[in-house]
Design brief:
TIM Barrel, alpha/beta, 14% strand, 7 helices, six-stranded parallel beta sheet
Length: 209
């Protein structure tokens, strides 16, 4: 996942060097420099991301930047991976301005009303290790209610640790911690969840097919 010009180049290099590794290129809202549009795109790039709005860390110019990134994603018919912090209303409005725009609400931590709003816009919800925190009852309810065909899991490594790995650097391998709890909450087997996640990932990131 690229967040600026340097990391966009790096993730494309990594994806190009390894089978089964894919890249997303974008410009994180907390990166102050202007994105170099259009972003570099090759056959291993499956999404525009990480992009979004973060009003807890500034805000100047973020809406205009995201609008330009959404326009590019729409033109290229690529999904977006959206970072949203303190800007739910603005993110939803901007998505609505691009009919047919598709993608993922990355590291989703909001309640059901906001979840339904993004689901109604056609987006997927992606959950990370934060759902394993004992206090996150409302978020766990969202995990249970999310339609099966809109559910995604992620590590957000090196951050987003599960409860039992607090204080450690997170790794993609630790996705199993989140998956085990999601399977329990949804009363399905871990194998069934794995099949569901594979199908959903290949649907939203269709270049991976």
């Amino acid at each position: 996942m690229g967040v600026d010009a340097a990391t966009n180049r790096k993730v494309m290099e990594l994806a190009g060097a390894h089978d089964g590794v894919w890249a997303a290129v974008g410009h994180h809202p907390t990166e102050s420099s202007e994105p170099d549009l259009p972003l570099p795109i090759d056959s291993k790039v499956v999404a525009i991301g990480e992009v979004g709005l973060d009003f807890e860390h500034g805000g100047a110019g973020q809406v205009e930047r995201l609008d330009a990134l959404f326009a590019m994603a729409a033109e290229l018919n690529l999904p977006v991976s959206i970072h949203n912090r303190g800007a739910t209303e603005q993110v939803a409005q901007l998505i609505g301005a691009y009919p047919g725009l598709r993608g993922v609400m990355h590291y989703f931590t909001l309640g059901w009303d906001d979840a339904k709003r993004f689901l109604d816009l056609g987006f997927y919800l992606s959950f990370a290790g934060v759902i394993t925190r004992p206090s996150r009852h409302e978020l766990r309810d969202v995990v249970k209610r999310c339609p099966a065909d809109r559910l995604l899991l992620e590590t957000d490594s090196p951050y987003g640790n599960s409860q039992k790995r607090m204080g450690m650097q997170n790794r993609p391998a630790y996705l199993i911690d989140t998956a085990e709890l999601v399977a329990e909450l949804r009363e399905i087997s871990i194998d069934a969840l794995g099949e569901l996640e594979t199908a959903n990932a290949l649907t939203v990131f269709d270049r991976m097919r």
